[in-house]
Design goal:
Layout: E1 3-4, E2 16-21, H1 37-50, E3 58-62, E4 69-71, E5 88-89, E6 93-96, E7 102-107, E8 111-117, E9 122-128, H2 130-134, H3 137-149, E10 156-160, E11 170-171, H4 173-183, E12 188-191, E13 194-197, H5 199-209, E14 217-219, H6 234-237, E15 244-250
Parallel strand pairs: 3-5, 3-7, 4-6, 10-14
Antiparallel strand pairs: 1-2, 2-15, 6-9, 7-15, 8-9, 8-10, 11-13, 12-13
This protein binds zinc ion.
Zinc ion (ZN) binds near residues 167, 168, 223 and 226.
């Protein structure tokens, strides 16, 4: 398998294209600390052609574990697609109403969170790791939908993609404490004398608090750490990790 999306609600829109690469495409991040930029460029070209999209339609951001969201306009097409120097930095979310542009982030345990409001024809994508979640990036995304296109949160569908799930996200005490005070013991819990956090569920809680209907939220069943054949995991693979790509776009 080279690409997957275990979403039903978003996948049923024929004008919406979304994809997550599996590790067969190789590393897709330009921010990798030692992998070669030329290899990333080639891997990305193959990923884009498998999706039947052009590099000048893709918009990619340099990630910073922030809660900043970039409003994508037509002129941004191609930025960050095939070279590191044109990445838009530093942001961890993208939102647009432009058709035929494809929002892209990279992931290797952090969650890609996909947004679609079919009434306003607006799409969004966040890179949600523990820092971004504590900084409330997904609440900010919902706020941006309201501010930019006057979305009613009840119309927004959200798919929380594959990431490191509760079976594998062990954390230090200080991170545990922050999640425990923000979300309580269902999301930050102790097991076998270690501390664990359920990031996907934390994202879901913040979405519901932002007005998204529970039945409009889908959560991927895939754990990047468990699914060694499909995904690279930063936690599991350590310095040998590679980053997968996540893409969403609205087509005419
Ligand atoms: Zn797992």
């Amino acid at each position: 398998m080279v690409m997957l999306v275990d979403s039903n609600k978003l996948a049923r829109f024929s004008n919406l294209k979304l994809a997550i690469s599996t590790k067969r495409f190789g590393n897709l991040s330009f921010q990798h600390f030692y992998l070669n930029e030329e290899d990333t460029k080639q891997n990305r070209s193959q990923f884009f052609s498998a999706l039947k999209i052009k590099a000048n339609q893709v918009v990619n951001i340099a990630l910073g574990h922030t809660a900043r969201i970039f409003w994508v306009q037509k002129k941004d097409g191609g930025k960050g697609a095939l070279n590191k120097s044109s990445l838009i930095s530093f942001y961890d979310g993208l939102i647009t109403v432009e058709k035929n542009l494809f929002l892209m982030i990279t992931i290797a345990d952090c969650f890609p969170v996909f947004y679609f409001d079919s009434q306003k024809e607006c799409i969004g994508l966040t890179h949600s790791g523990w820092r971004g979640i504590l900084a409330c990036i997904n609440r900010r995304m919902v706020a941006d939908f309201k501010k930019r296109v006057k979305s009613n949160p009840k119309d927004i569908l959200v798919y929380i993609g594959p990431g490191i799930q509760r079976c594998h996200f062990e954390v230090e005490k200080d991170v545990f404490n922050q999640f425990h005070s923000a979300f309580g013991e269902k999301i930050a819990f102790e097991k076998n004398n270690y501390f664990w956090v359920d990031l996907s569920e934390a994202i879901k809680v913040q979405l519901i608090e932002s007005g998204i209907k529970e039945e409009n939220i889908e959560q991927s069943a895939y754990c990047t750490y468990c699914e060694e054949k499909l995904f690279s995991s930063y936690r599991r693979d350590k310095k040998n990790y590679i980053a997968q790509g996540a893409i969403i776009g609205l087509i005419d």
